[in-house]
Amino acid sequence: MTETVRFTKGQGTGNDFVLFSDPDALVDLTPERIRALADRRFGVGGDGVIRAARSANLPEGQTILAEDPAAEWFMDYHNADGSVAEMCGNGIRVFTKFLLEQGLTTLEPGETLAIGTRAGVRDVQLNRGGYQVDLGRWRLEAPDFDGTVGDGSGPEVTATALPVSRPGLSLSVGNPHVVVALASADELAAIDLGSAPVLDPAPVDGANVEFVVPEEPLVADGVGRIRMRVHERGSGETLSCGTGAAAAALATRYWAGQGAPDQWRVDVPGGTVHVRMFATEDGEHVSLSGPAELVFTGDLAI
Ligand SMILES: N[C@@H](CCC[C@H](N)C(=O)O)C(=O)O
Fold it and tell me: Which residues cross the membrane (predicted)?
């Protein structure tokens, strides 16, 4: 049966999403419907589709509410190809703005909004005209890795995106990433991300792949600076990936070794986001901050 969805198109540094509110999770959100909404020619168009549902009304929401009963809203995130992802760093900022504009929640300066995701509860705060999200603990994917930056035991995979084939560092910030260092901005501009980079060995659940180069100088005023392009699992090349920016900053700090900064500026084709690593009682967390915009609203039958 056809349903009409009242959607909002939003973007964060050019990573764009189709958002809609479905508090009771009544819409049968099939992969076909997600692809129809995300289609740039026949639908609204976006790198992903985000449903705002009450955590209480989704099966995934039950563990979220056990983790934090304040996480009333769940970011039900789907990639453009219809697959689900654990987390979206740009999406959660846009999602927060959407909840606020819809009058579904409130968030004052200094307050924290807890949001449910498939990676767990994520805390969002207002930040310099945009939003900051605590992405939680990060980890290199090697089972034997103890989380110490500079440990040197990080798992490497080979990533091939023509014309380059290079080792990459595999890590998780809630969702999976492989980060590859390139030599120059020219090399970054030249790689072909029209199809997914080939990873060897291939991660079972796939991965987002980030290619990074240092800005000149790498560190200015205590802030690390890198430039990045990304091929997202389930979406293709995008103008930005928030969790990817966090992964790229973490990998670059790892490679830089002792003394590398804990604050990073990451330039992506769609703008700039900021990444910060900080110690907490349960280990080191990484946060992401950047802008979020709502672009237009409409109705679409799916
Ligand atoms: N663009 C997002 C990440 C979205 C999910 C990703 N494609 C995946 O499958 O893990 C971001 O800003 O983090």
Answer: none
Closest-CA residue to 61 (of 25, 113, 17, 98): 25
Superfamily of domain 138-280 in CATH is: Diaminopimelate Epimerase; Chain A, domain 1 (3.10.310.10)
Annotation: binding site = 15, 79, 89-90, 175, 208, 232-233, 242-243
- Cα 115 from Cα 113, distance rounded (Å): 6
Judging by DSSP bridges, how do beta strands 176-181 and 208-220 pair with one another? parallel
CA of 232 to the centre of ligand 1 (A): 6
Residues with active-site annotation: 88, 241
Q: What is the pLDDT of residue 145?
A: 34
Binding residues for substrate: 15, 79, 89-90, 175, 208, 232-233, 242-243
2, 42, 104, 125 from 35: Cα distances, Å: 15, 10, 26, 31
In the chain, % helix, strand, coil (3-state, to 5) comes to 15, 45, 35
Q: What DSSP element (H or E) covers 274? A: strand 271-280
Cα(47) to ligand 1 centroid in Å equals: 9
The domains of the chain are located at 4-136+291-301, 138-280
Q: Kindly list the averaged pLDDT for each block of 10 residues, start to end, along the chain of length 302.
A: 93 98 97 97 97 97 98 98 98 98 98 98 96 96 42 69 95 95 97 96 91 96 98 98 98 95 98 98 97 97 91
- Residue 300 is predicted with a pLDDT of 93
CATH class, range 4-136+291-301: alpha beta
ipTM for the complex shown: 0.99
In the prediction, which pLDDT does 152 show?
42
d(CA 120, CA 87): 9
